[in-house]
Amino acid sequence: MKEIFEFITNAREAFIRAIDTLSNEQLNKIPEGYNNNIIWNFGHIVVTTQALCYVRTGVLPDGSSIKYNDFYKKDTRPTYTVSAEEVAELKTMALESVEKIKEDYDNGLFSNMIPFATATYGAQINSVEETIITTIGHDNMHFGYALALKKLLV
Hints:
Largest sheet: 2 strands, antiparallel
């Protein structure tokens, strides 16, 4: 699992580098014909991995204690202009949350898993290890969306 956590971190660092090349206005821009923007895609990966790891294992009763969850969870759309301060905080959270999940995983915190099927892939997830591995595909799918949106801005 060590290599998987490293890969997730490396991919998130690449996403952050892409974000760092854009203005706050560009991060918040929703191109015509689309329902979200680059910063929503980034915020979404930050909250989703935490929700799946902590809620689906019963560590948290729901996602309400995950900062920004209500704004970036599944089936949400941007409803406000994200500030530069929030962007900075999301970038920090993107990396620190992976470290915290790794620490909690190494300490055996995720002993129970409530199985579920992913909405995106329809794959059955039965363990926290499968959840963490699926994070790679989910994060990179949203990174790809963000890169496509970026091309519409430049």
